[in-house]
Amino acid sequence: MRKRSTFNNALTKEPQLTTTPMTLFFIGIIEMIIMATWTKVVSNTQIVASGIITMMNIFVWYYVLRIVIDNINNWHLVLFYAFGCAIGTVLSTAYFQYRSKNIERSVSEI
């Protein structure tokens, strides 16, 4: 039986995704900002925008899922991702609340 060459293995092997916990932390923040924006556009019935944002979010989910599965024993990655998601939720909620209050204030001044 002939052994496959290393060159052929390199061609057929999928590239490994490497990431750090901080990368997943920032991805968690970005994902929650995307989700908060998606919630806003869906509640305002902006159909095309909600579809585009949904597609973006699916790609983020795919990336995160692949990283977590490839590093299934590294719970630190999930912990940093969860912290990022929590901070992203807080930031996006605070932003939309601030924006809503400013809009209400400007309308009441008219």
Features:
110 residues, mainly alpha
Report what the structure shows.
The protein is mostly helical and 110 residues long. It has a domain at 20-91. 81% of the residues lie in helices and 0% in strands. It has four helices and no strands. The longest helix has 35 residues, at 75-109. The radius of gyration is 20 Å and the shape is elongated. The model has no long low-confidence stretch (mean pLDDT 86).
Nearest-angstrom radius of gyration?
20 Å
Number of strands: 0
User: So how many helices?
Assistant: 4
Helices and strands, in order, run as HHHH
Q: Outline, from the CA principal axes? A: elongated
Distance linking N and C termini: 84 Å
The helix fraction, in percent, is over 70%
User: Which regions are unreliable across 5 or more consecutive residues at pLDDT < 50?
Assistant: none
Give the arrangement of secondary structure elements:
Elements lengths: L5 H7 L8 H23 L3 H24 L4 H35 L1
Helix pairs in contact: 2-3, 2-4
In short:
By secondary structure, the protein is mainly α.
